[in-house]
Amino acid sequence: MNYPGEFHKLLTLDDIYEGEAKLVEVNRYEILVVNIKGEIKAYYARCAHALGLIESNSFDGEEKIICPVHLWEYNARTGESINPVGSSLFPLDVKVEGSDIFVKVPSVPISEFKVKWFGMYRQRGVINEFGVNS
Ligand code: FES
After folding, report:
1. Which domain covers residue 17, as residue numbers?
2. Fewest CB within 10 angstroms: 8, 9, 25, 98, which?
3. What CATH number does residue 124 fall under?
4. How many domains does one find in the chain?
């Protein structure tokens, strides 16, 4: 995903075991970091349905992230919605260097991100304008 941002060290691998998720806040961005059997993923922690907060216990420890508000389900590896289909969490870029986990946090103000980036991304019909394959 090509969005404006900078990498921030958020956690180390010792902070998040396999099957765990952690909710971290940076510059007013709520970020869910997930460890899926050793694969680290990160998402803007707001649900594509009605912006419910995706808490750390929303990860089932295996393959799903389930929004606690109305129970929309997402594939933890891709962020794509499973039930219902046709939407997605906003994936954030991750890199792991040694045991340090870096996440690319958007550099635009959160209000702009919600409208221009996340707002558009939630609607799959316009995802491709931002270079994301649907
Ligand atoms: S806000 Fe997440 S399912 Fe409604």
Report:
1. 5-130
2. 98
3. 2.102.10.10
4. 1
- How far is 93 from 105, CA to CA, in rounded Å? 8
Amino acid identity of residue 109, one-letter, is: P
Phi-psi region of 62 (alpha: psi -120 to 50; beta: other; left: phi over 0): alpha
The pLDDT tens digits for 22-47 are 999 999 999 999 999 999 999 999 99
Residue 114 one-letter amino acid: K
Query: Terminus-to-terminus CA distance in the chain, angstroms?
Result: 12
Phi, psi dihedrals of residue 19, rounded to the nearest 5°: 90, 0
48 touches ligand 1 (CB under 6 Å): no
Q: Which of 70, 81, 89 to mutate to test the pocket of ligand 1 (most atoms within 8 A of CB)?
A: 70
Chain position carrying tokens 């209000």: 111
The pLDDT of residue 121 is: 64
Query: Is the shortest distance between the CB of 67 and ligand 1 below 6 Å?
Result: yes
Contacts of 97 (CB under 8 A, 6+ apart): none
Q: Which two tokens stand for residue 69?
A: 């508000």
Mean predicted lDDT score pLDDT of the chain: 89
